[in-house]
Fold this sequence. Notes:
Number of strands: 12
Order of helices and strands: HHHHEEEEHHEHEHHHEEEEEE
Strand order of the largest sheet: 5-12-9-6-8-7
Strand content: 15-25%
Largest sheet: 6 strands, mixed
Oligomer: single chain
Distance between the termini: 47 Å
Shape: elongated
Structural class: alpha/beta
Helix content: 25-40%
Amino acid sequence: xxxxxxxxxxDGEKNLIPAWKDYVNNYRAVNFSVKKSYDTSKTLDxxxxxxxxxxxREIANLMKVDCSFVDKExxxxxxxxxxxxxxxxxxxxxxxxxxxxxxxxxxVANTQTIGYGDSAVFDIKSGDLFTVVENGNSRxxxxxxRQFTGQKALVPTNHTVTTEVDLYxxxxxxxxxxxxxxxxxxxxxxxxxxxxMAAVKDSFNTLTANFKExxxxxxxxxxxxxxxxxxxxGAKAVAIGTELGLGTIMPTNDYLKMGLGETYSKIGYLPVxxxxxxxxxxxxxxxxSADYDFALDDSYIYMISPQTQKLVQVVFExxxxxxxxxxFANSNLTQKVSLHKRWIVGLIxxxxxxxxKTTV
Length: 360
């Protein structure tokens, strides 16, 4: 079932959407060192002002009410204003999240969006080659082999983040729409990233002996990479993990270590080891922890062939839904807003991959 989203005005399509995407690219490049291209003629703060102004215009357009002759406090408490504000913010969030997840985890995951009430069905075709055997002159057939195709369905589940808005800050014009939307994007992206890597890590015990290693050694590392590549039809394998995890991938010979010191000290890990590229994943924080615990396990190295089918499928369902309290529901003039987003993450692939444990 297809789903409809809020339609922006011509001004929104022409100005808000490009400005928002450029703001997101600039924000991620400045704050997270993500390699993104963006307009350098304006500062990030200047772009934030422009995006907020464009969002305000779009809110007014959706309200279909001329607010030019009333003070902000007269319309900021209007339920229609709250609906329009979060309708605009939800659309901005929805258009960015799938792209960010796909960019940050392009080696591991695919993303897709389905309509409300739908499920995503994936065909899993065998990646194995046929076995070729030596046969006698008088035998017509050898053991028959079939191309099996399996199926698996993913049904998204609801995820919610609840925030509190200070009505006084709204009336004073201090609520920053762009900053709020960006924080929602980063929060959801972080949670999905944790789900993606948890799906791969949790499969360790299901792997056969040739595709998992309980401890790091140079020989085991190279052997696992070679096996994954060969099992995927010759597609080159890469090793991915957190920077701390990849930092343990080193030669054991002290003489060989001497020549790697500068590169290792500069990056924190070796970009290539034994002809296997090493790719670092950005570490995440478990925001439910008491003392900012890491969310991604540093002691796991994942060997994959990115050119083959991605290991993880991320499915979004419909658009985001915002539910806000009444503007005067709370005695302290705050307003709670819950943003609901439906997604699911599943390990569904015909690619072969390996996992190695290491000691950090």
